[in-house]
Amino acid sequence: MVLNNKIRRTMLENKSLYFGSFALIVISCLLYTMLNLLLVNLEGTKASFESKYVQEDASFVTDKKLTRIPELEAQFNVSLEEGGSFDYAPGQGNTLRIFAKTRKVNRYAVIEGSRLSGGDLLLDPAYAKANHIQIGDSLSVGGKAFKVSGSMSLPNYIYPLQSDGDIVNDPAHFGIAVMSRSDFDLLHKGGSFYSVKVRGNTEAADRGSVQSVLAAFREEVRKQNVLIVRWTSTEDNLRVTFVNAKIASMKQMSSSLPVAILLLTCILTGIVLWRMLRREFVIVGTLYALGYRRSEIVRHYLKYPFAIAVAGGVAGTLLGALAFRPMLAFMLTYFNMPLDTASFLGGHLAISVLLPVVFLGISGYFVIRKALRRSPVELMRGGGEERRIGFLERRVKLDGLKFTTKFKIRDQLRSIPRSVFLLLGVALATMLLLLGFTMKSSIDFLLKQSFDQAYKYKYQYMYRALQQGKPAQGEAFSELLFTLKSDAKQGITVFGVSPSTRYLSFKDMKGNPLSMNQVVVTKALADKLHLKDKDTIEVIGKLDSKPYTFVIDSIADTHVGAYLYMPLSLLNEKVGFPADSYFGLWSEAPIRIPDSQLLSTTTTDEIKQALDSMLKPLQASMGTIAFLSFLIGLIVIYVVTSLIIEENKDNIALMKVLGYRNKEMYALILGGSSWMVVAGYVLGVPLLRLSLGALYQSATSSMNLTLPVTMDYRYVIIGFVIIYLTYELSKLLNKKKLARIPMTEALKSRAE
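Above: the chain's sequence. Below: its structure in token form.
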């Protein structure tokens, strides 16, 4: 159709407006493609790794060795294997946890290098990289030299955390290694544990039957007069579940952010298309008179949004596919898993291209249909209607205001879609910009206020067996695991502590000090389970599968640890342990305890180092997020400013005829949107709080903490300065366009 020859010419005449839509679509499709390909490959890699290398269903520690392993395996149809580990300190503040090679459960996967052959060991790649250890280097362990033959991953340590209570890993200070069983036994270090895998458990739907098998298995172990000191199901193992939490949060981001940008693009394209149609009403009426059918005219004008959508969709999808591989490589260093192959799923690539076509096609169709409701005669007369005064413009009383103020307000009220587009665009840019700042503020609050104020000990020691009597050093406590009676997937950690403990300092929700001679839950646990004072929790013991009931006396205002605290003597009485028994010690100074007696050792400095290490990649990504928000903000504000100039072309020309100086015209035309920019920023702040609250809740659902949404006022001010500077930059870029409008435009419009 000859009519289509004008499409390219029209787009080039208004290239800034169409380029804005194109750029937003590219960003949206890039994010959609990259994030969805990343999610599919992460989920596939995790499932393949866990199945191929036999991830445990649970691990446990006993007070004595099991003697009937083959009989237990046959009776319950499980794979049961004894493992061994010990912590080795290559340097000050550096811990390497060394595991003995296993054959049946939690087999290691070689990522780089060669398999174990004796006299060597394999390291996790993140630890090796952080500590500058190369393949072929030698490490001295227990007075013996071991060659580093490569890097590996363990299916029960996908996210290598030093202790169960840790939140983030710190590869510079903690890592894992594997050596052969014969080399491990020769060192005579550490202790043993057991890993159990229910055979045939390949689907998530089997988890209920798996739990019933494991419950019967635990009961049989107790019948053999063996005490299970610690039991950790895979669902409670943060070293595994953290990956699921991360994937869940990425799923929310992969759908919501691209769609939000696309909706913004639909508004922009609708505004541009409606403006073009209004300007071409006479042309459309003439086309009707020449015999063109309505369907032909609709198809012609739909080619504008379709051209932008296809070009932007293809470009964004290609860029997303290119960015996917390096992003996947980064995530697999974050989560220690081997990658077999990276798959590019055609379905996601096709959806990425089609989404903008569908979104812009639908919005464009409705705009065009609205314009073509008029008769050919009305269209040839320029639309058949004079400019109407809108409802808001009639309602707002501007009497008594200066001319410049009235002009700016009326200009915004006369183009509500344009103002809404600017408002939402600035709000989205604000949310992206403050995202990194707010996450940093939240972690700072968690680390400095919640953690430092509540926990006063420096060292935590957990024994492999139940201890009795008053300890010579430190303060005794116990840590036992339970699950909710109503939801077996929800684990609860219960601490028995001294009523006069020196190492816990909690305050209630009103800021008053809390006595520990009562049952206290942290706010993290209260938020997860929606608990109040005097509520009752019914739980099942992980070690004995017996039911217990706890009545909540108070809630401690701390977000670190979804824990329940009670007097140690009361806990011992409930579970049937001796009154003076305990499993752990807290202290301010190191205590010399033989490694063979210890299950784990944790220091608060290690926890803080891990949190600090988590902030480093966040701080690095803040620059990228800030640039993306700056880019979206600049595109939105620049396009809106261009629209304002186009719509006020006649007024600008008339102002020049009347002798207005350039500075006065800049203030009137380009400065009228400043209050909408401020309103968009103000709107973006509460929207970010709401969205981050949902994101944090999803991300920490499997973690022993809750992350409060905390905004530092300094970052809010910095964010506003950046957004407003972006607005000023867009005005600066449009000044030349305003200056190029000739005075003859005023005469042309009056002649027409």
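The mean pLDDT is 83.
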